[in-house]
Amino acid sequence: MYWIINDNIEFRPGMKRLSSVNNPEMNVTLTSPASRCLLLLLEASPDIVLQQDFFKKVWEEEGMLVPTNTLYQNISIVRRGLRAVGETDRRLIATIPRKGFQIDDSVKISRRNDNEPATPFPVSTTSNQTTYNIPEVFNQPKNDVNDQVLPAETDARTITKEKPFAMSNGVFAASASFIVGLLVVYLAWNINNDADFFESYKFIEKEDGCYFYTKDDSHDNNEYYLKYKSLIKDSGLNCKNYPWIYFPTSQTSPSLAALVCKNKFSTTSSPGCISLLIRGVNGD
């Protein structure tokens, strides 16, 4: 089963892929949660999909509790993917304030069987088309949060640790966001470069069904290891679903970037990992 959107965008949920009907070489591979969000919107159209329905069907059924920002992040990924493949600036997904999202009333959608081909339209003469790597952050809508470059089959979760007072300094906030971005890009780059990423981590202990791995120049400093382990466990992580946990214990980073996986990397080529970001862990 697949979907045709506005006669020129093909969405195949099983492959998490958006592609142009006119030019299949122009395509976008969505993250797993973004793909599930789009599928919910298409199946519910023209009705609204409430925020709680997204949380339940996209994350909670996988054993994850995520903040609202994560939902906005994945809707942003879908919007940019649709714009890129459809080569349009039209609004395809409408935000319903304080409720949820829906496919815009102006959008035409149709559901097709796998053996039913999409009807191609004449291809305009253009330069060579390329595959878009989603997500990238360009001219992001105000209500969307920064999207993250993640490996295939990887979801994203961002948690902000509460501070004793509000930080209003824009320069500091921008710097912190930039540093977090570097952490995520670094994390994704390492994951995509074979098992070297995981092999650099050492097994520390098993606790409550979770296997904790860490790497650090200061891992002997138990204070930071115990602090970060506690933050990860307090995030709502379900050790039954994601028992393999990899995280550094930097004493200077303002954020903790951990990778939690369904399977051990050495037993499968697709460990099914989630990037868990906890901000403000070493703030003053």
Description:
With 284 residues, the chain is of the alpha+beta class. It has 2 domains: 2-112, Arc Repressor Mutant, subunit A; 155-279, no CATH class. The protein has helices spanning 32-44, 51-59, 68-86, 170-191, 196-199, 222-234; strands spanning 2-5, 9-12, 17-20, 27-29, 49-50, 93-96, 100-103, 109-112, 155-160, 202-207, 210-215, 244-248, 255-261, 273-279. The strands form 3 sheets. A 6-stranded mixed β-sheet has the order 9-14-13-12-11-10, sandwiched between helices. Strands 4-3-2-1-8 form a 5-stranded antiparallel β-sheet, with helices on one face. Strand 3 and strand 4 form a beta hairpin. It is elongated. Mean pLDDT is 73; it is low at 120-158, 160-169 and 182-194.
Which helices and strands, and how do they pair?
Elements: E1 2-5, E2 9-12, E3 17-20, E4 27-29, H1 32-44, E5 49-50, H2 51-59, H3 68-86, E6 93-96, E7 100-103, E8 109-112, E9 155-160, H4 170-191, H5 196-199, E10 202-207, E11 210-215, H6 222-234, E12 244-248, E13 255-261, E14 273-279
Parallel strand pairs: 9-14, 11-12
Antiparallel strand pairs: 1-2, 1-8, 2-3, 3-4, 5-7, 6-7, 10-11, 12-13, 13-14
Helix pairs in contact: 1-2, 1-3
Short description:
InterPro entries: OmpR/PhoB-type_DNA-bd, Sig_transdc_resp-reg_C-effctor, WH-like_DNA-bd_sf. By secondary structure, the protein is of the alpha+beta class.
Instruction: Tell the overall outline.
Output: elongated
Topology as a string of helices (H) and strands (E):
EEEEHEHHEEEEHHEEHEEE
How are the strands ordered across the major sheet? 9-14-13-12-11-10
Helix content: 25-40%
Could you tell me how far the N terminus lies from the C terminus, measured between alpha carbons in angstroms?
52 Å
| Overall pLDDT score | 73
Strand content: 15-25%
Count the E strands.
14
